[in-house]
Request: fold
Amino acid sequence: MSARQHSIGGLNSVRHILQRANARPFRGGSKIAPSGDKTTKQSRRIFTAEDARMLARRRLPRLVFDFVDGAAGREIAAAKNISAFDEIELQPRVMQDVSSRNLRTTFLGSEYDCPVGIAPMGMCDLIWHGADRMLARASNRFNAPLCLSSAASCLIEDMLSWTEGRAWFQLYVGQSMDHTLDMVERAKTAGYETLVLTVDVPQVSRRVRDLRNGFEMPFRIGPRQFLDFAAHPKWSLTTLVNGAPSAKNFPTDRGNSGFDRGASRAGADWAFLNRLRDLWPGRLVIKGVTSVADAKRIQSCGADAIYVSNHGGRQLDSAPAAIKLLPAIRTALGPDYPLIFDSGIRSGEDVVKALAFGADFVMLGRPLLFAIGAEGERGLNSLFSIFTEEISLTLAQLGLTRPGEISRDVLINPPASLTEKSTQLHITKSIKRA
Reply:
């Protein structure tokens, strides 16, 4: 029996057990959240990113939750990403007129309602069917950029249409150079203006939770997975009705094997960067940079921006917290060079801290998937609203009215690498851009 036949057979077995157990049937076809205005209402259970995480943990199969929540090795790097933000203190200021605040931010030639976007995340429909569409609608509702992963559950062309042109495309170099270059061409033809090359995954790391849970793509249903799915009937029935998610931009016809999660992605080397810079006419962003030396070389290669990230702690467990490396990169590259940041962001205050440490823009990842896993589109919209509200409230406490006014002065103990000259010039340029 083929792996695909084995997977389908296992899913059908889960369907049979659930039907026999008289599990409440899934209503609403492919939608998980009520349609219409109800999706814009605030959740009564999600007030923080951790609320979303805990609700998702109860609602999703363990295999699925751990795929999102897990990280490399003992998950020390992932924990440090979050705890490092707890160590950063902000200095409140008083008696400033902050009655009128505006979060609008201009970045890479586009104006957004807030200095926050949606990070590239593969296989989002694994969390719940239609997750990619939900994220696209959030991109439109909050006027935020969405970076589509190469391993997305939707087609490259569809996401640009769904987001009304707000999408960026994230590229992995792996499996086949011909397929990699084909995706670049597809993104160019579709009309993408920003390409994000991820360079920090030469090989997918050893993620222990996935190994313990037997996580594989496509799904292979053994006794452990069978019981896990049967214990979460709503997710299982939704998946059965709509089909198991797959990486849509990796074909499985004409002898193609589809997405190979474990394939080497080491083709993203310096020679490829130079080649890509020549091929791509739009803005080129390099993601997964934490080294000052690498950042300076990337800048000299003509990249338009650098995305500082340690992949959420999912690659190297001994990596430092990404936020601690951001100030040195800002200083090395100068005040004007565009920097994006993710890894460890769990609140609007964290966003402000990242901006104070030298970022121009911040991307959200895991928390948004947890919000979808917790309450679907209602949860996603609620959590995104919470982030924007927290950013605005934090500015008020700091005596500021716009993100462009954030500087090292809001920090109680600015890192030594964050020189006053570099950040003051950085802030001056930010104010001009806004």
The radius of gyration is 21 Å. The mean pLDDT is 87. Residues 366-397 form the longest helix (32 residues).
